[in-house]
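Technical appendix A lists one of the benchmark inputs used to test multi-chain prediction within the project. The record comprises two sequence entries:
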Amino acid sequence: MKGRGWFVLMLAAGVAISLIGVLMGAWWLTFPAGLVIGAAVAPARLAIPTGGLAGLLGWGLPLAAEQNRYGLGPAAGSLAAIMGFSNQAAVPLILTCLVGLLLGLTGAWLASAVRRAAVPG
Amino acid sequence: MVRVARTVNLIAALVVSGAVLYVSFVGAGPLPALGPVFNPSTGAWTMAADAAGVESQTLKIDGLQEPVKVTFEKDGTAHVVAQTDSDLFLAVGYVHARFRLFQMDLMRRQGEGRLAQVVGKAALDSDRFELQLGLLRTAQLEWSQADEVTRVALSAYARGVNDRIDEVKRLHQLPVMFTLLGYQPEPWTPVDTLIVKGDMTQTLNFTDTPLVMELLDKSLGPDLTAAWFPVLPPNTQSPYDPGPYPSHTTVAPMTAMRAVTDSEAATAAALHDRLAALPPGLLATGGESNNWAVAGAKSASGGALLAGDPHLHLTLPSIWFQLTEDSPDYHTSGVSIPGTPVVLIGHNQHIAWSLTDAQNQQTFFYEEKEDSAHPGQYFWKGGWQTYTTVSYDIPVLGGSTDHLTVKLSAHGPVISERGLTTSVWWAGNLPSQDFEVLMRVGQASDFQGFRDALRDWHSPTHNFVYADDQGNIGLISAGYYPLVAKGQPWLPMPGTGEFDVTGTVPYDDIPQVYDPPGNIVWSANQRQVTSDYPYYIGTASNFFDPGYRANEIHRVLSQDGKLSAADMMALQTDTRDFLASEITPLIVQALAGDQLTPAEQQARDLLAGWDFRMDTTSAAASIWWTFWETYLSQSFDPWWKTKNVSVDRHELDDALGQDLEAMTLAGATPCQPPGCGPAPASSPCITSECAPGPLTVALRQAFHTAFTNLTGTLGADPASWTWGRIHTRELENLAQVAGLSYGPRADRGDGNTVLAAGGFPSTHGPSWRMVVDWGTHTFSGIYPGGQSENPASAWYENKVDTWWSGLYAPMLSADQAASSPGAATWTMRP
């Protein structure tokens, strides 16, 4: 296991990749960001939550910025209504964060699993 | 063991990752592709930035020749000021697309038969029908025949729309519904604009009336059908053009209704069912619009007054976008339809205009004669003709491409081959340079110019009301009034040539008036002319209105004294039910001496003291309406049951209501089918055999039944039966998202009141209210909605409350708007 600095570096890299992807419309980059973390961070019990956290931050930070700049209340309410969840504006917010989290988390999990499977014994 | 665990772990990671990626990229079931949709920076959340509204800024817009100013009032009303006409239309295209791009795309897709491409096979029937009917073919023909002015305007408009489409793609700011449905808008073309116009033509005047008449003829028989669905209305109406008319053969009364064969009826039933299954809006199902004008001589301000409120399906976003257009050749203010470049209803510096649907018959069905010895051919004018065919590929989301071949006869497209091959002659399929006309209307400065411009308006037929700054008024029902060589055009006719449409009523002979002696003109979808009018223009059931709104408007306008703009506004929101004012006294009279319970006496007293206004707080309004529905049912349902009529009786309530009104006012009731026999009070039968029964008995029975129904629905206390408890209005979201609709909310009015509000809930009504006073040069208007289709925007429904309250907003000029509080201005530069 490498040190805390390495872990923080990988987390930052994951967040950065995810964030760039989100900003550029390449939202799927969150998954490779998770892959990078899963490949670079061990053990899996640390890598997987880190991947999830990177995805969550990669998606959550732009959302927070939107909230700060425009206010997301009406948009969240409208999206919830479109999705059939009228008066439950939190649903699209939660879903957005969940998508980011799952993309990062599964990426890290997959890379960790591959790495472990490749190690003899 | 460790190896197995690691392998299982790897497989699990692969499966879960695959699932997450699949749902993110593709979606699952009702879920859209979650990745692009929820991407905070380029997905649906961009609606938050879009909803933040507009601020003063400079925009670079490709294609402009000179700078253009666009000022937005605080409520979103736009004012476009351009230095060239081309720039004006380009800027309008950009502005429309900025606020209504998805609506515009939806409308063109509907008319072009390309909805299934984005929503899947659920829209395939609609697409197939639209391509059969031919809006796309007509639009393409219109474009090929357009004059230079129209081509410049539509091309510039398309350029402006495409500027915005390019911008949203570049900035990843697609309107939310594109993101959710997972597609991007294709470039806009002038043909798309003509398609949007075609959509409106279709929804206003493509009817199935002849099919309905054929089904009625088959089941009720020719005599009853002719009696209940006559050419001329059976009740007393207020035509705005009383004549004199040109000498010509007069309208033949419907006395010789022919018998319908089994195969004809089966064919009509199949086609009627097919049309009934189409989404709402593809078939005209009645119109409710008002317009009128008061000459300067009768106006308190001394200037002419004009009022217009076209009634349409009320949606969010609205069909209307409010704006002013200023350029060297155009100075118009009013409402436009997103997707089209011009003001449809409004005013310029000298004249104002509004329109209502004229309702004359513009749809004729033909049964083509075919023979197995002549495949692919039909018999017409003495010889076998080969159908022209057109083929289409309809892309279907999630399915294989559908292939459609449309056959065209001399009459028009074949729209049914179940049973007899049926084609349709529809005036909407004839090229009509409506944009050229509207641009000339917008430039007119007097009635002559207005009337000359409308000479080339063909379809849909509209009652164009007019008032100018010199105190003059007029009304002209512009459009095609098809003439049929012979036969019974209210039924499908043989397609062999003898019964073809041979021309149209000459322009000078169509209904019209200018500065009439009474100093008022009015239209409310009623038959425009009296029984002396020499041409056939449709049956009383061809969705000509029963005339109650027109009668009420005429009653109010024709009273002594001067009228003001405030009077116009009050009349536009008038809830007095003319039919109720005729019938209610007869109900009260019939109940005199009847055995009534105390609660029934209370209900009768409510009716006796009623002012005939359908207000939300009126209990009498509920009693009246329930009574009338019961009376209709009691009078006609036995026939429907006995004769196995397949057409829903409620589809025909307007026509049957006219009959019932006329009979009741004449002291009679409808006869009843043989076999019903004398009946107890609970039975719908009023009398035995086919003889009119005592009116008093019928009215009492309907009252008692209505009372029982209301007691069961609203409780035992008649005073609590307020109209607002049963009558609501809803503004439906265009994409059918219930959570983004407005209402249902208790509302006043009914289908017969000037403030039209038919239905439960009512989803149809005054889509725009405008009042013009040329004496004070004040212009007021309001529509139920907002300028933006973005549901998160403050301009999504910000005009609704003003509209609901019966209030108006001033229609400002561009200069006035620029100095109004909260205004913002875009400076568009090439």
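The first strand of chain B starts at residue 57 and ends at 60. Confidence is low (pLDDT under 50) at residues 677-692 of chain B. Comparable benchmark entries are summarised in Table A2.
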